[in-house]
Amino acid sequence: MDKLQDPTQTKLNLKKESNGDTSVKTWKHDDTRIKKALLNLFVLGELPFKFVENEAFVEYTNALNAKVVLPSRHTISRNVSKFYIEERTKMLQFLSNPKTTIHLTTDTWTSSCQRTTYMVVTAHFIGENWMMHKRIINFREIDSHKGKDMGRELLDCIRGWGMKNVMTITLDNAATNDKAIDFLVKKLPNLYEGGKHFQVRCMAHILNLIVKDGLKYQNYHVECIQKAVRYIRLSPQRINKFKKAMKDCDLQTKKFLCGDTRTRWNSTFELLKSAYELREAFTEFGIRDKSYERDLDRVPENYDFEVVTEMVKFFEKFKTKTEFVSATSKPLVNLFIREVLDVDIHLRK
């Protein structure tokens, strides 16, 4: 009887809604849709291509729909490449349209292990559905951090995508970025008001600079706690000793000491915050680890933690503001003045 059925025939399917009700939906076998869904699974899930031949995955697919014929990993590889080219072509057509207004953000950094410099460029735009979108349109290794070299890389990216209506570009507040913008303004025609408003300085980076500057004034206390935390986190043995010290102090928490990165103040904030919450365990740790006081210039005392807790309270607002202005899924420019004034009031208290 099954042989007489038309595989393209629409079938009825019961679907349970979020409110608990059941509705009747139509469904039919669609090879094209299944193929695209499979590609999305591998791309978005970052799965290895050989996973398509995994016995458990094959069994699961057959249980869902025995009519589905899974491709080989080599076919998946070819299809992903074709899919990328198709999607890139669509994006190229959209970004190169003179009616498309594009706002760019870019950042550069140096890999700590390979000492290699990278640049990423992200395009932000409003789609045909009036929803905000962002796409990484460039990610490459660059030769230097010099302003003119960065400007050339950005110009190559803009021209490569055929962009004709770049409204703004947001960068960190650095002198090299100013030079990159000067280079771009001279090379790009039709900028709004001659590029007067082309550069937007990253507010999150400005907040970062404010806090880093503020941390210098209490460096004595901050460094003392930083060195103690780094000492403890340096080996598994010391970490275990500190955990035992936490247990002896009856600290009922799953939190532990956070590490920090010199270039990110928020990591220093988290380090100080975690150290203050576990401050009682430091003295107990010193009893367990005989080299603790010997190897460090000075170990944290109660007064250090008292100073640090006031700093943590003060910088909590900056952390909240940084997270707020770093959002990419909603418009924020209309709220920046309010946020800047709030920070100004906070600094004057």
UniProtKB/TrEMBL annotation:
Residue segments, region Disordered: 1-22
InterPro entries in the cross-refs: RNaseH-like_sf, ZnF_BED_domain_contain
Feature: compositional bias, Polar residues: 1-12
Domain of life: Eukaryota
Protein name: Zinc finger BED domain-containing protein RICESLEEPER 2-like
Organism of derivation: Lactuca saligna
